[in-house]
Write a structure and sequence with these properties.
With about 70 residues, this protein is α+β, with helices and mostly antiparallel strands. The chain has one domain (about 5-70): Metal Transport, Frataxin, Chain A. Helix content is about 35%, strand content about 25%. It contains three helices and five strands. It has helices spanning about 10-20, 55-60, 65-70; strands spanning about 5-10, 20-25, 30-35, 40-45, 50. The strands form two sheets. A three-stranded antiparallel sheet has the order 2-3-4. Strands 1-5 form a two-stranded antiparallel sheet.
């Protein structure tokens, strides 16, 4: 299993987009992303801060992706 390390939010946004997710709305510093099949996830955008491992796992789980697959697209 791939080791997750904190990542910048801009990099985290690229991975779901490569799987077909689109940003459908933004409220404040949170971007809601949706896949055409109905899966959704929320990615926080805080400049200068990384997204921690726990929240990365939540984003990956919400998007129903595999960790290794996610990390290949970051």
């Amino acid at each position: 299993m791939g080791r997750l390390a904190p990542l910048p939010s801009r990099k985290v946004l690229c991975a779901p987009e490569s799987f077909g997710f689109e940003a459908i709305r933004q409220r404040g510093s949170h971007i809601v992303m949706r896949h055409p099949d109905g899966r959704t996830t929320v990615v926080p955008i805080h400049t200068g801060e990384d997204i921690g491992r726990g929240l990365l796992r939540k984003i990956i789980r919400d998007a129903r992706l595999d960790v290794e697959e996610f990390l290949r697209h970051v």
